[in-house]
Amino acid sequence: MANIYTPRQQRLLLITSLVIIAGFIVAGLRGYATAFLGAGILYVVFRPWFTALAIKRRWNRSLVTTLIIIFSTVVIIMPFLTLSLLLIGRIQYYSQNVDDILNLIHKGEELTGFKVTSPQNVRQILQQGATYASRLLPSIAGGALDFIVIIGLMFFTLYFMFVQQESFQKGLQKYLPFKRDTQKELGESLKNNVNANVLGQALVSLVQGVLTGITLWIFGVPDAPFWGVVAFFMAFIPVLGTPLVWGPAGLIKLSQGDTGQGVGILIVGIIVIINIDNLLRIMLAKRMGDIHPLVTLTGIVLGVPIFGILGLVIGPLLLSYFIVLMNVFERENRQLRAEAVQDEVKVEKKAENAETGT
């Protein structure tokens, strides 16, 4: 019995079915998207290690991948989780005990003569900030099962990405709707973004966070280690970064009459911490991915509300991919126009030859 659909209709229905099924899959896994994104980021970070050990030295792939997973758990996941929980705990403490914050604001108002906001607004802002921070950063207390599932799914995905690396890469090349040159550009953009916004930026942020914490401790700021952790996270934001931590700390010391300590914090921040930031970025830019600060800043603003803390990488990556695809689109259009001009020239020559009889 003949099929009632034409070949064109069958193709359209096939595409529609794929889109609908893919939509259900994405909707079902949307809560665990960070696991797959995290696996992709870790794959790019540790791929040189895997290549050196499993490909060149021919170590057992499962063993190498297991060692990579253990290393990333001990060196990346656990310290980051500890810092996140510490930061969330302190933010929640300050949101519930706002008297210290209000006193500092009042002193700042007395020093500058400007009224910032009402106490009720301050309380509301702090409570909203605590809620927002808890949503962005991982919290075992907020959902132990979800956290364990996400981490487990991330490492499970990473394991097969390494163990079956050739099949994984061939699958990407086969099913991505881009030419081979475009795929290479996208891969290079991913590598540059991960290097710049994970490896390079994490190193810069760590140095700045440590320097900020030590500076605040030397000049007698309470909770200096906590503010050092805050500085570590804030340092991911280009331009603004750690000045949002040591700047108010210096102004608060000045408002309290501790002129020497306040001036000292500001001098160290301006001369040492900011210059260290610029120096490290210049040193690492060419080695670990040269990403324009505007792309990073705009990408962070775009990515963090959508992807949480992973938006620090995913946001700039999305913008970089958009720029790459726009360049590809422009280049291919230019090639098509050039080919069209060449075809017109050939047609005109043929017409001229036909008229002259040659």
Automatic annotation (TrEMBL):
It is a multi-pass membrane protein. The chain crosses the membrane at residues 12-29, 35-55, 67-88, 140-162, 198-220, 226-251, 263-284, 304-329. Keywords: Membrane, Transmembrane, Transmembrane helix. Its main location: membrane. It is found in: Membrane. The keyword Ion transport does not apply. It comes from the Bacteria. Pfam families: AI-2E_transport (PF01594). One of its GO terms (cellular component) is membrane. Belongs to the autoinducer-2 exporter (AI-2E) (TC 2.A.86) family. This is Uncharacterized protein. It comes from Fibrisoma limi BUZ 3. The lineage of its organism: Bacteria, Pseudomonadati, Bacteroidota, Cytophagia, Cytophagales.
